[in-house]
Amino acid sequence: MRWKLLGGPLRSAQVSRAKGQLTSAAGLLAWLNDRSVGLAQCRQAHLDAWSADRIGDGEVDRAFLIWCMKTAQMPTLKIPVQARATSGTTPMHQSVRIDALQRLLTDESLSLRSRVAGSIVLLYAQPVSHIVRLTIDDVLCHEDEVALNLGEPPTPVPEPLAGLLQTYVKGRPNMTTAANPDCRWLFPGRRAGQPVHPDTLYELLKQIGVSAGSGRTSAIRQLVRQMPPPVVAQALGYHQVSAARIAAQAGSPWSGYAAGNHGQDRHSSTNNVAGQGIQTT
After folding, report:
1. 155-156 vs 145-148, strand pairing mode
2. What angle do CA 106, 151, 213 make, to 5 degrees?
3. Which helix (H) or strand (E) holds 221?
4. Which of 87, 186, 238, 247 is 20 to 30 A removed from 229 (C-alpha atoms)?
């Protein structure tokens, strides 16, 4: 088939880009539809979460989003800079990830903010752009149990991370300004009412030797090797298509696992997620 635009033939690269834009549009609309949100109701938190979960071409994402905003199909929002694919990031070796996680859990010379944020990246495969959108309401405490609201159901947080997280919530930084006492962000920024910028958190983790990109890639690949991708996706807030694609790239034996309402699997798997590399000696 020969594609034409305005009377002239399209080159293969142009055809590929056009197809990519259609795929990007369909992906965003499907992601929003899964959450019962229309394009006109899309807000910054939605865009940040979609971008963080996106596996695709960042330039295509940007072009489509700019078009949506210019034509008033969606509100004018800030396009996240972290729209990158985990497939293009070299994963951290599993032993390196576990060693880094152990250090974050035990090294009291590191800032508590960096220890908590880094642990969420390395244990739960969360992108920094999603972590900065978490609030203290996403830290669920009931009696002696702590859970983190990343997906459905909330993911249990084992010790010693549970204790570190509770201590951090009680003494979050950047809470002394006049406009910030009632701030609900788990990682407040210096600007009143705003969370810390993703770039700032990336830099903080980099300074303590934690690569957020490769650490997250290593974590999610390890998880989809050990559990069904749809279960991991639902527990950690990933899109099922993204989780399935990562599983295929990682050579997961669960790649063909069908999506569905695997209630028992979801609850047992969130406990498995919480136990990955968390033990200290």
Report:
1. antiparallel
2. 55
3. helix 212-226
4. 186
List Cβ neighbours of 22 (8 Å cut-off, separation of 6 or more).
none
pTM of the predicted model, to two decimals? Answer: 0.66
Taking each helix axis from N to C end, the angle separating 240-249 and 212-226, rounded to the nearest 10 degrees, works out to: 90
Rounded distance between C-alpha atoms, residue 157 and residue 146, angstroms: 5
pLDDT digits over 67-101, tens only?
889 999 999 887 765 434 444 567 888 899 999 99
Concatenating the DSSP letter of every residue in 79-145 gives PPTT---GGGSPPPPHHHHHHHHHHHHH-TTS-HHHHHHHHHHHHH---HHHHTT-BGGGEEEETTE
**Residue showing tokens 């951090």:** 168
Euclidean distance between CA atoms 11 and 198, whole angstroms: 37
Q: Which long-range contacts (CB under 8 A, 24 or more apart) does 189-198 make?
A: 195/132, 195/133, 196/132, 197/132, 198/80, 198/81, 198/82, 198/128, 198/129, 198/132
Instruction: Give DSSP secondary structure letters for 147-181.
Output: EE-SSSSPEE--TTHHHHHHHHHHT-SS--STT-T
Distance (Å, whole) CA 229 – CA 273: 12
Helices 212-226/198-207 angle, 10° precision: 90
Q: Which domains does the chain have, with CATH numbers?
A: 10-84 (no CATH), 94-274 (1.10.443.10)
What is the Cα–Cα distance from 111 to 107, expressed in whole angstroms? 9
Give the HSE-up count for residue 8: Cα atoms under 13 Å, Cβ half-sphere. 4
CA pair distance 247, 143, nearest whole angstrom:
36
What's the length of the chain?
281
Return the closest-CA partner of residue 182 out of 137, 133, 120, 146: 137
Residue 182 scores a pLDDT above 70: yes
